[in-house]
Amino acid sequence: METGWKACLTMIHLHVRERLESEEEERLSPFAVKSRRSRGRDRYEEPSPVRTEFQRDRDRLIHSKAFRRLKHKTQVFIAPAGDHYVTRLTHTLEVSQIARTVARALRLNEDLTEAIALGHDLGHTPFGHVGEDVLNELFPGGFRHNEQSLRVVEVVENGGQGLNLTWEVRDGILNHSKPRESLMGQIDAGGSTLEARVCKLADSVAYINHDTADAIRAGLIGENDLPGLAVDRLGRTSSERINTLVIDIIDYAFAGGGLAHTQGEALRIGMSRPVLEAADTLRDFLFREVYTRTSEDELAQEAREVVRFLYRHFVEHPGELPAELQAMEGSAARKAVDYVAGMTDQFALNTAKRLEEWKIERF
Ligand code: MG
Question: Looking at domain 2-356, does it have CATH number 1.10.3210.10?
């Protein structure tokens, strides 16, 4: 009797995933990635009865330890005095929100978009780009946070087993990075799916706005210092600017063939020239007035020393790494990078203090 009921439930559950997959086929744009047609995972797993493959990846990312640690990692301002500054976690959630709005409007796969967004910054070091620069200097293979994000989901998480995510999510995570160039330059640079390109653009939309707000909050710049071109074309407040940017991305896709599906022309993911110019202007302004200054102040210098010390220490003393890292394959330098890059700001400081009675009074 019970076996029969259980079998019946299994049938109903199977029906749930299959229905979700069929809905994707019917509802999404021809250019969206459909879960059923994913290139799949490195290791085969039985499909979930009630979730598509991309929903499953999104859930795995949320439950990962690396995701929880984002809460205590710097975005731009190290150890800020207030509770309203953006952290790597709130940045990630903003990217996800913006990317999902765009994906849904364009009938792209929202679950895939969300999974990429939630995973994109998992490889970020403590102390933001300051930590990234130090590891890049010291690690023989160089260090880039997007490559580390991929490594976290492929290898480091789950006791060295990785999360075994689908190919599309991993591709999006790897290709979200942003060399300093026009926002459009980044878009053309990579990401094999339209969902990945949306995330890349959403990343920029999020950070040029929340970093502006935080820089004003910190008193580094004033509201009236923002470039006139950016304010005129994008808006005076963060919410106006995000709205302008998001709507422009959606309009741009529609204008470029988004409605002409029958002609087989792919959706264009990008921005119109005037809005792109304004966004680039704001971004250049942030580099000049904010990022350069925050990465050179005394706090940043000390953070640099901490990361440098920790990396060297764990290269020389691999026996002090957590057991699961010791058990992983790779050089001592590789493991030291994995360990240090995974640390939160506070954990890095505490570890440095514990190991060398570090005297850092500002933190
Ligand atoms: Mg990001």
Answer: yes
